[in-house]
Specification:
Blueprint lengths: L1 H10 L4 H11 L3 H22 L3 E8 L5 H4 L6 H20 L4 E5 L1 H10 L9 H7 L3 E5 L15 H11 L6 E6 L20 E2 L7 E2 L3 E6 L9 E5 L19 E3 L15 H19 L7 E8 L8 H17 L3 E3 L2 H11 L7 E4 L15 H8 L3 E3 L6 E8 L2 E5 L4 E5 L3 E5 L6 E7 L2 E7 L2
Parallel strand pairs: 1-2, 1-10, 1-11, 2-3, 4-7, 7-9
Antiparallel strand pairs: 5-6, 8-9, 8-12, 13-14, 14-17, 15-16, 15-18, 18-19
The structure holds zinc ion.
C-alpha cells in the first residue's frame, strides 16, 4: 500500500508536504487507508482514460443486386431465401454472442425477398425486423440505383427506406455507400451525395421522401478512388478538394468508415491476420494519438452477404471476435455501432465547428504481425469457449464448435451426449435447472429456464 501512496505522491509532487501530513494522520485508521488506496487507483484510471483514444469498432455488411452470381442463391425463391436467411442468422448469432455491434446495409433484392418469403410487411418476426431489434444492431439502406436497362434496379435510397419501413425497421438514417465526388471517369456518375441534401422522393414510391443524417462509405465507380477516412465532419463539396473540408453550415455529416480492404472479412481472409491488424491498428492509434482531444477513430470490419454461405464463414468471424477480446477488455477497442458512435461524437464535441478528418493513407500503420504484448492473452482467448444464450430455453450454442459434448445434471447424471461436431444443441427436452457441460475444449455451467 505504501508503494501506491508514494506513486500517487510522485504523480502530484506539488501536493507533497500537505499530502504527507495527511497520509500520516490517516495511518491510524485502516478503513481510511483503504479508501485512500482506492482513491489512488481511481486517479490512475481516470488519468489513463482521459488520455486514451479508443477505436470505435463496428461490423457492417452490404448485399448487392448481383449476389446470385457469387453464391447462386436467388433471394426471390423461397428455398434459396431460407438458406441465405440461415447464413445471415449464423453471422448475427456469432456477433451477438460477443456483444459486437452490426450495421446491416441492404439492397432491394434481399429486402424484397424478405417481404415476399417471410411476409415481412405483416410478420413481426421476419429476419430484417429481428435484426433491427437486436442490441447494438441496425439496418440501413445500401443502394445502386439503375432505373432503366439491363439489370435495372428501380429503387433509390428513399425507396429502400420505404421497403425497410414495411419490414418493420424504424426510419433508417445512414446512406450506406454513396458517390463522394464528381466522377467523369471511367463513367460519368449521375448522382452524388449533394442530391440528398434536401429530402428526395422515391423513384418507385414517389410518395416517400427521405434525407440521410449520416453519409457512410464514400465510393467511386469500380472502387477506383474511394474516400476511406476516420472522423466526423460535414463535407463542403463533391470535389477532390472539397469533400474532406469541414463546413458546419452544410446539411449532411460524413461518418468515417476507416481503412478499406485491410479490414474486410472476405471468404479467403486469414482470421488471425485480420484480428492482428485490428489490434495493431488500436495500438498504433494509442501510440500516436493518445492525449489528442480531437482524434476520433471509427473503424468498420466489412462483411459481404456474398461470402456468408462460404464454408466456415461465421466460425471465422467468431475466431476474429475471440482474438480481439483482450483489446475490448483493456478498452483500446470499444464496440460501438454507427449511430451509437455518432452519439458519442456529439457528446465529446458539442461545438458544431469541431470536426476530425483523417484519410486512411495519411493515418496509422496496419500490420498483420501478431501483437507481441498480448501473446499470452491471445493464447488464452484462442482456447476459451463461449456459450450462449445462458440461461437458455430452446437451444444452446458453442463458439467455437464443440466435439464430444456431454451434459450432466446437478447429480452428475448424463442427460445428453453429442459426439459429432456441433454449434447448437436442442435442449427443449430438458427440465429447467442447472446443468454442467463437458467438451474437449473445456467445461462449464448452463442454466435452462422457461
Ligand atoms: Zn454495393
Amino acid at each position: 500500500m505504501g508503494l501506491q501512496v508514494n506513486a500517487w505522491l510522485n504523480k502530484f509532487p506539488h501536493n507533497k508536504p500537505r499530502a504527507v501530513a495527511a497520509v500520516k494522520a490517516l495511518k491510524s485508521c485502516f478503513m481510511i487507508r483503504l479508501l485512500a488506496f482506492m482513491f489512488c487507483i481511481l486517479c490512475c484510471c481516470l488519468t489513463s482514460l482521459a488520455q486514451s483514444v479508443p477505436v470505435y469498432l463496428y461490423f457492417a455488411s452490404h448485399n448487392e443486386t448481383n449476389d446470385q452470381s457469387f453464391h447462386g442463391l436467388n433471394y426471390n425463391t423461397p428455398t434459396d431465401y431460407a438458406l441465405m436467411r440461415a447464413h445471415v442468422r449464423r453471422v448475427c448469432d456469432t456477433l451477438l454472442a460477443h456483444g459486437a455491434p452490426y450495421d446491416m446495409m441492404l439492397e432491394s433484392n434481399f429486402i424484397l425477398g424478405c417481404l415476399k418469403n417471410e411476409n415481412a410487411a405483416v410478420s413481426g418476426n421476419d429476419l430484417i425486423e429481428w435484426v433491427s431489434q437486436q442490441p447494438g444492431f441496425s439496418v440501413q439502406p445500401h443502394n445502386h440505383f439503375k432505373p432503366f436497362g439491363v439489370g435495372a434496379n428501380p429503387y433509390n435510397y428513399a425507396d429502400l427506406v420505404y421497403l425497410l419501413d414495411s419490414c418493420g425497421v424504424d426510419t433508417a438514417q445512414v446512406m450506406g455507400g454513396f458517390i463522394w465526388r464528381d466522377f467523369t471517369n471511367p463513367v460519368a456518375v449521375s448522382e452524388d451525395w449533394t442530391d440528398w441534401q434536401t429530402p428526395r422522393p422515391g423513384f418507385t414510391f414517389p410518395q416517400v421522401r427521405w434525407r440521410p443524417t449520416l453519409l457512410w462509405g464514400g465510393g467511386s465507380p469500380n472502387h477506383i478512388d474511394d474516400f476511406s477516412a476516420f472522423g466526423v465532419w460535414k463535407p463542403t463539396a463533391a470535389t477532390q478538394a472539397g469533400f474532406g473540408q469541414h463546413d458546419s453550415d452544410q446539411m449532411l455529416i460524413n461518418f468515417g468508415n476507416g481503412c478499406g480492404d485491410d479490414f474486410v472479412l472476405w471468404d479467403t481472409t486469414n482470421a488471425y491476420q485480420l484480428a492482428y491488424r485490428i489490434m495493431n491498428f488500436a495500438d498504433s492509434v494509442q501510440a500516436y494519438f493518445s492525449g489528442d482531444p480531437d482524434a476520433f477513430f471509427n473503424q468498420k470490419v466489412m462483411m459481404n452477404f456474398r461470402h456468408f454461405p462460404a464454408a466456415g464463414y461465421a466460425e471465422k468471424l467468431g475466431l476474429v471476435l475471440r482474438l480481439i477480446q483482450p483489446y475490448i477488455d483493456n478498452g483500446k477497442i470499444r464496440f460501438s455501432g454507427i449511430m451509437e458512435t455518432w452519439e458519442s461524437w456529439k457528446t465529446l464535441h458539442p461545438d458544431p465547428e469541431q470536426s476530425f478528418v483523417l484519410r486512411c493513407e495519411d493515418g496509422v500503420t496496419v500490420s498483420s504481425v501478431k501483437p507481441l504484448l498480448t501473446t499470452t492473452a491471445v493464447k488464452e482467448v484462442e482456447t476459451r469457449t463461449i456459450v450462449w444464450p445462458n440461461p437458455a430455453s430452446e437451444s444452446i450454442c458453442f463458439q467455437p464448435t464443440v466435439k464430444r459434448l456431454s451434459l450432466l445434471d446437478v447429480w452428475g447424471k448424463l442427460v445428453m451426449e453429442v459426439s459429432e461436431e456441433t454449434t447448437c444443441v436442442d435442449i427443449t427436452g430438458l427440465t429447467p435447472g442447472v446443468y454442467f457441460y463437458r467438451s474437449e475444449l473445456g467445461n462449464g455451467k448452463i442454466v435452462v429456464q422457461r
